Hints:
Layout: E1 2-6, E2 10-14, E3 17-23, E4 28-38, E5 41-45, H1 53-64, E6 76-79, E7 83-86, E8 91-94, E9 111-114, E10 117-122, E11 125-130, E12 144-145
Antiparallel strand pairs: 1-2, 3-4, 4-5, 6-7, 7-10, 8-9, 10-11, 11-12
Amino acid sequence: xxxxxxxxxxxxxxxxxxxxxxxxxxxxxxxxxxxxxxxxxxxxxxxxxxxxxxxxxxxxxxxxxxxxxxxxxxxxxxxxxxxxxxxxxxxxxxxxxxxxxxxxxxxxxxxxxxxxxxxxxxxxxxxxxxxxxxxxxxxxxxxxxxxxxxxxxxxxxxxxxxxxx
Length: 165
């Protein structure tokens, strides 16, 4: 199979691997197969190999091409493909509480002092830690426990939609 595409120059793509998607109404999974060519017969698929995170990341990068540089604000500490970490200085901030027992109803919407915090979102999990000093943290800085009741020991936020941390 030969495909030619013109994106400023000609490229020759060759079939090397195949991804097969299996699924039912609730779940899906994908297998990866090497393709073997035969002289007078159609190509065949080799046995399935598991997909790795590294393969998927490389596939996405090759399909998306290179991304342009980003200018990030000073409060962003780190950014990766599926992670971002940032920090705000200490300050007074409005807090919102909602739970089924309405125990925090009197606190909802009020403004409270907060220390400088480090926020990190990675793979859908939000984690919060506190800083001892009101300045941008260095990589080796020790982080403290943030003053919120809905955090696990590792700083993961329990949003109330999942199991307790």
